[in-house]
Amino acid sequence: MKIPISVLVVIYKSNRDVLLIERADRIGFWQSVTGSLDALDEDLALAATREVFEETGIAVAQLPTGALRNLHHQIEYEIYPEWRFRYAPGVTKNTEHWFALQVPENTQVTLAPREHVAYEWLPFQEAAKKCFSRSNGEAILKLFSAN
Q: What is the pTM of this model?
């Protein structure tokens, strides 16, 4: 069963283009990197690092120190009914912690085919509008309103 605590990582370049990935289980559903903790005591930054690598092939440890930033913002949202089967019975809410990851211009993306089928780099305003999750769009806009 999935733990109802997750991370969302907005991956971006210095020109403010944001990486979006399209879900394999829902064509047309574009998002940033997301994923649940593997254990209740898993460090949030380690979970973010793991999810980034699993979903995009980007190795955070090979990037400059400070490339991954905890935005110290969390939200609670209702889990979509069609995805609740992944959680313990009765779990309907998830707490999501937001991170940002700045990557070099020439960063290569290698998707996990069971999870995502396409990716694209978009200007941050366009990326925010394209996200299927309203909170994902808000995370993108919050990141760039602070910069």
A: 0.95
